[in-house]
Amino acid sequence: MATSKPKTVAFLGPAASYSHQVTKSAFPEPEWELKATTTIRDVFDVVQAGDATYGVVPFENSTHGTVTFTLDCLADRSDTYTDIAVCSEIYLDVHHFLLGKIDPQASSSSSEPHATSEIQERPSKPLTSLAHIQRIYSHPQAFGQSGLFLQKYLKGVELIDVSSTSKAAALAAADETGTSAAIAGEIAASLVDGLDILARNVEDRDDNTTRFFVIYRKGEEQQLPPLTTTRSGEEEGKYKSLVSFTVAHRTPGALADVLDCFKKLALNLTSINSLPSLIEPFQYLFFVEFEVGGIPGADVDADERLRNLEEMVRGVPAERWRFLGSWKDMSSKSPRM
Ligand SMILES: O=C(O)C(=O)Cc1ccccc1
User: Fold this and answer.
1) Mean pLDDT across the chain
2) For residue 210, which atom of ligand 1 is closest to its CA?
């Protein structure tokens, strides 16, 4: 079958978001055409519609936890994304900056040079006075990862959630009063005109890391995305899979019975999440991510383990069981930067 479609990858934009940074590193241009969307849901829509071969979405952060917008789309409680699955993961070290305009009233003595010591003090000190800042824009994840800094230096200042950190940077730059700031990445500071760096590394922890998923449409001829380089250079393959399901709401031990299937098949769990099922109040849809060992689709043992799991959970039973993909474990790896 001839494929005339351009190789497009959708990501949460605008340019200079963390999603853009990670997408560029894994899907270099001009080989890949990158398509910025306004929301995470748009990424799912574009991939489901077949208008992009892949989509890149943030899934979880080491400091602040699951990105609920992404989990909500994966939950797909209205059966809109029935063809979407995860085929890859990418880890990104995330260091946030406070960007805005330096207060022209601030005396120059208040602007301390930034000490680049090896062990950074947390929360890090602002580079200049922040007394003029009245509002801060950012993605809710970035606010959640920078709580110590905000609490110490910007207590009581209005925090405004927006769709991405790069959108936040654009909004702060557009405020001519100079009283708005954004929490965004260093790349936003250089790509968005008219912003000064007011503070560096405002994240609560130095090891702040976000894991992104690469999604695709099942059944499409899948050209695997380019492999990311490894921190240690090794290419040994452990694979992970993700499933979602509900269990009988009023049966004691129903969730334990499903989890017991993973135990019996020696499938090590790597994450568990839940969201309201929207079937009835306080019933939950569960997401279980687990190690499968070899390459699903190419390794007989891995395929058999997945088949056995599917069979076993049917007898327990798990309801609304959905297989959301398998991919190579990149937890010790980073994208090309
Ligand atoms: O808003 C962005 O830049 C994103 O790509 C989402 C996000 C926000 C905070 C940390 C990592 C990803």
Assistant:
1) 89
2) 11
